[in-house]
Amino acid sequence: MKMNQKGFSILELMAVLVIFSVILVPLLISFTNSLEINRQALTQRIAASVAEGALYAIDKIDYSQLALAVPEVGVDPDNYLTLDVNTCSTEFGGANDIAICESIFEMQSQNLTFDATEFKLYIFEYGAYDEVVNDTSLPIDVRNVVALDADVIAANDAPIDSLFWAVIWLDYFDDPDLILVNVGIVADEDPPLN
User: Fold this and answer.
1) Which residues cross the membrane (predicted)?
2) Number of structural domains found in the chain
3) Three-state DSSP class for 120?
4) What is the domain range of residue 174?
Protein backbone atom coordinates (compact mmCIF):
# COMPACT_ATOMS: atom_id res chain seq x y z
CA MET A 1 0.00 0.00 0.00
CA LYS A 2 1.46 3.27 -1.11
CA MET A 3 0.89 6.40 0.80
CA ASN A 4 0.57 9.83 -0.75
CA GLN A 5 -1.32 8.64 -3.87
CA LYS A 6 -3.55 11.42 -5.08
CA GLY A 7 -7.09 10.77 -6.36
CA PHE A 8 -9.52 13.21 -7.86
CA SER A 9 -10.46 16.17 -5.79
CA ILE A 10 -14.09 17.01 -5.07
CA LEU A 11 -13.83 19.99 -7.40
CA GLU A 12 -12.63 17.81 -10.28
CA LEU A 13 -15.43 15.27 -9.69
CA MET A 14 -18.02 18.06 -9.65
CA ALA A 15 -16.63 19.47 -12.90
CA VAL A 16 -16.93 16.04 -14.58
CA LEU A 17 -20.52 15.66 -13.33
CA VAL A 18 -21.47 19.10 -14.64
CA ILE A 19 -19.91 18.39 -18.04
CA PHE A 20 -21.69 15.02 -18.29
CA SER A 21 -25.03 16.52 -17.27
CA VAL A 22 -24.67 19.37 -19.79
CA ILE A 23 -24.04 16.82 -22.54
CA LEU A 24 -26.32 13.95 -21.47
CA VAL A 25 -29.50 15.79 -20.46
CA PRO A 26 -30.14 17.31 -23.92
CA LEU A 27 -29.29 13.96 -25.53
CA LEU A 28 -31.77 12.12 -23.33
CA ILE A 29 -34.48 14.73 -23.95
CA SER A 30 -33.85 14.51 -27.68
CA PHE A 31 -33.99 10.72 -27.53
CA THR A 32 -37.33 10.65 -25.69
CA ASN A 33 -38.79 13.25 -28.08
CA SER A 34 -37.63 11.15 -31.00
CA LEU A 35 -39.35 8.08 -29.57
CA GLU A 36 -42.61 10.00 -29.19
CA ILE A 37 -42.44 11.37 -32.75
CA ASN A 38 -41.75 7.88 -34.10
CA ARG A 39 -44.71 6.48 -32.14
CA GLN A 40 -46.99 9.18 -33.57
CA ALA A 41 -45.73 8.53 -37.10
CA LEU A 42 -46.25 4.78 -36.77
CA THR A 43 -49.77 5.28 -35.43
CA GLN A 44 -50.51 7.66 -38.32
CA ARG A 45 -49.32 5.06 -40.86
CA ILE A 46 -51.52 2.45 -39.21
CA ALA A 47 -54.52 4.83 -39.25
CA ALA A 48 -53.90 5.63 -42.93
CA SER A 49 -53.83 1.92 -43.70
CA VAL A 50 -57.10 1.36 -41.84
CA ALA A 51 -58.70 4.33 -43.63
CA GLU A 52 -57.59 3.03 -47.02
CA GLY A 53 -59.02 -0.39 -46.21
CA ALA A 54 -62.28 1.19 -45.07
CA LEU A 55 -62.64 3.14 -48.32
CA TYR A 56 -62.04 -0.05 -50.26
CA ALA A 57 -64.53 -2.05 -48.17
CA ILE A 58 -67.36 0.50 -48.20
CA ASP A 59 -67.51 0.05 -51.97
CA LYS A 60 -68.40 -3.63 -51.36
CA ILE A 61 -71.70 -2.74 -49.65
CA ASP A 62 -74.69 -3.10 -51.96
CA TYR A 63 -75.19 0.35 -53.50
CA SER A 64 -78.99 0.11 -53.34
CA GLN A 65 -78.79 -0.48 -49.56
CA LEU A 66 -76.40 2.43 -49.22
CA ALA A 67 -78.67 4.68 -51.29
CA LEU A 68 -81.58 3.85 -48.97
CA ALA A 69 -79.50 4.71 -45.89
CA VAL A 70 -77.96 8.00 -47.09
CA PRO A 71 -80.26 10.96 -46.32
CA GLU A 72 -81.48 12.94 -49.29
CA VAL A 73 -80.37 16.57 -49.08
CA GLY A 74 -83.29 18.96 -48.85
CA VAL A 75 -85.70 16.16 -47.87
CA ASP A 76 -84.21 14.64 -44.71
CA PRO A 77 -83.13 16.75 -41.73
CA ASP A 78 -79.63 15.22 -41.83
CA ASN A 79 -77.35 15.89 -44.77
CA TYR A 80 -75.18 12.81 -44.29
CA LEU A 81 -75.11 9.25 -42.99
CA THR A 82 -72.91 8.54 -39.98
CA LEU A 83 -71.62 5.00 -39.60
CA ASP A 84 -69.66 3.50 -36.74
CA VAL A 85 -69.37 0.02 -35.26
CA ASN A 86 -72.67 0.48 -33.38
CA THR A 87 -74.84 1.70 -36.29
CA CYS A 88 -74.17 -0.90 -39.00
CA SER A 89 -77.04 -3.20 -38.02
CA THR A 90 -79.54 -0.33 -37.86
CA GLU A 91 -78.63 1.25 -41.21
CA PHE A 92 -78.48 -1.83 -43.46
CA GLY A 93 -80.93 -4.66 -44.00
CA GLY A 94 -78.87 -7.35 -45.70
CA ALA A 95 -76.72 -9.70 -43.64
CA ASN A 96 -73.79 -9.31 -46.05
CA ASP A 97 -73.95 -5.52 -45.90
CA ILE A 98 -74.08 -5.55 -42.10
CA ALA A 99 -71.12 -7.95 -41.97
CA ILE A 100 -69.08 -5.79 -44.37
CA CYS A 101 -69.93 -2.63 -42.44
CA GLU A 102 -69.00 -4.19 -39.10
CA SER A 103 -65.77 -5.59 -40.54
CA ILE A 104 -64.79 -2.07 -41.60
CA PHE A 105 -64.90 -0.85 -38.03
CA GLU A 106 -63.37 -3.98 -36.53
CA MET A 107 -60.22 -3.75 -38.64
CA GLN A 108 -57.05 -4.31 -36.69
CA SER A 109 -53.59 -3.35 -37.81
CA GLN A 110 -50.51 -4.07 -35.72
CA ASN A 111 -52.72 -4.69 -32.66
CA LEU A 112 -54.27 -1.23 -32.95
CA THR A 113 -58.06 -0.97 -33.08
CA PHE A 114 -60.37 2.02 -32.96
CA ASP A 115 -63.67 2.22 -31.06
CA ALA A 116 -66.91 3.98 -32.03
CA THR A 117 -65.71 7.32 -30.66
CA GLU A 118 -62.44 7.18 -32.64
CA PHE A 119 -63.55 5.81 -36.03
CA LYS A 120 -66.51 7.13 -38.02
CA LEU A 121 -67.57 7.07 -41.64
CA TYR A 122 -69.63 9.91 -43.08
CA ILE A 123 -71.41 9.40 -46.40
CA PHE A 124 -73.22 12.15 -48.28
CA GLU A 125 -74.59 12.90 -51.73
CA TYR A 126 -72.13 13.77 -54.45
CA GLY A 127 -73.46 17.32 -54.95
CA ALA A 128 -74.09 18.21 -51.29
CA TYR A 129 -71.03 20.42 -50.79
CA ASP A 130 -72.74 23.51 -49.33
CA GLU A 131 -74.96 21.52 -46.99
CA VAL A 132 -72.08 19.44 -45.63
CA VAL A 133 -69.60 22.30 -45.22
CA ASN A 134 -72.19 24.39 -43.35
CA ASP A 135 -73.47 21.53 -41.16
CA THR A 136 -72.12 22.25 -37.68
CA SER A 137 -73.06 18.78 -36.40
CA LEU A 138 -70.15 17.36 -38.43
CA PRO A 139 -66.68 17.40 -36.82
CA ILE A 140 -64.73 20.50 -37.82
CA ASP A 141 -61.93 18.35 -39.25
CA VAL A 142 -64.36 16.71 -41.68
CA ARG A 143 -65.85 20.06 -42.74
CA ASN A 144 -62.40 21.56 -43.26
CA VAL A 145 -61.20 18.68 -45.45
CA VAL A 146 -64.42 18.71 -47.48
CA ALA A 147 -64.26 22.51 -47.83
CA LEU A 148 -60.72 22.36 -49.23
CA ASP A 149 -61.07 19.26 -51.44
CA ALA A 150 -61.07 20.47 -55.05
CA ASP A 151 -62.93 17.37 -56.27
CA VAL A 152 -65.75 17.87 -53.77
CA ILE A 153 -65.99 21.55 -54.69
CA ALA A 154 -66.18 20.73 -58.40
CA ALA A 155 -68.88 18.11 -57.74
CA ASN A 156 -71.10 20.79 -56.21
CA ASP A 157 -71.72 22.22 -59.68
CA ALA A 158 -72.34 18.84 -61.34
CA PRO A 159 -74.10 16.39 -58.99
CA ILE A 160 -74.31 12.77 -60.13
CA ASP A 161 -77.04 10.53 -58.70
CA SER A 162 -74.98 7.34 -58.78
CA LEU A 163 -72.12 8.67 -56.62
CA PHE A 164 -71.63 9.33 -52.92
CA TRP A 165 -68.76 10.90 -51.02
CA ALA A 166 -67.33 8.76 -48.22
CA VAL A 167 -65.30 10.54 -45.55
CA ILE A 168 -63.30 8.49 -43.04
CA TRP A 169 -62.67 10.21 -39.69
CA LEU A 170 -60.08 8.60 -37.40
CA ASP A 171 -58.98 10.01 -34.05
CA TYR A 172 -55.75 8.04 -33.99
CA PHE A 173 -53.71 9.71 -31.24
CA ASP A 174 -54.77 11.22 -27.92
CA ASP A 175 -51.94 13.36 -26.60
CA PRO A 176 -51.69 15.51 -28.68
CA ASP A 177 -55.09 14.91 -30.28
CA LEU A 178 -54.37 13.90 -33.89
CA ILE A 179 -57.09 13.28 -36.48
CA LEU A 180 -56.90 11.65 -39.91
CA VAL A 181 -59.59 12.45 -42.49
CA ASN A 182 -59.71 10.64 -45.84
CA VAL A 183 -62.14 11.34 -48.69
CA GLY A 184 -63.24 8.82 -51.30
CA ILE A 185 -66.08 8.11 -53.71
CA VAL A 186 -68.61 5.29 -53.60
CA ALA A 187 -70.04 4.53 -57.05
CA ASP A 188 -73.00 2.52 -58.26
CA GLU A 189 -71.51 -0.20 -60.45
CA ASP A 190 -74.78 -0.53 -62.37
CA PRO A 191 -76.20 3.01 -62.62
CA PRO A 192 -79.59 3.41 -64.30
CA LEU A 193 -79.41 4.51 -67.91
CA ASN A 194 -81.13 7.82 -68.67
Assistant:
1) 7-29
2) 1
3) strand
4) 34-187
Domain-embedded: residue 11: no
Is 159 a domain residue?
Answer: yes
Kindly list the strands in the beta sheet with 178-187, ordered across the sheet, starting from the edge strand earlier in the chain. 81-83, 119-125, 163-173, 178-187
Beta carbons of 117 and 105 less than 8 angstroms apart: no
State if pTM tops 0.85.
no
Q: Give the contacts of 162 (CB within 8 A, at least 6 positions apart).
A: 63, 187, 188, 191, 192
Please report which residue ranges of the chain form alpha helices under DSSP H.
Answer: 10-58, 63-69, 88-91, 95-105, 129-133, 140-148, 150-157
pLDDT in tens, 75-122: 767 889 999 999 999 998 889 999 999 999 998 888 888 999 999 999
Domain presence at residue 19: no
Distances (CA, A) of 30 to 17, 23, 25, 27, 33: 20, 11, 9, 5, 5
Q: Count CA atoms closer than 13 A to 28's CA, side-chain side.
A: 6
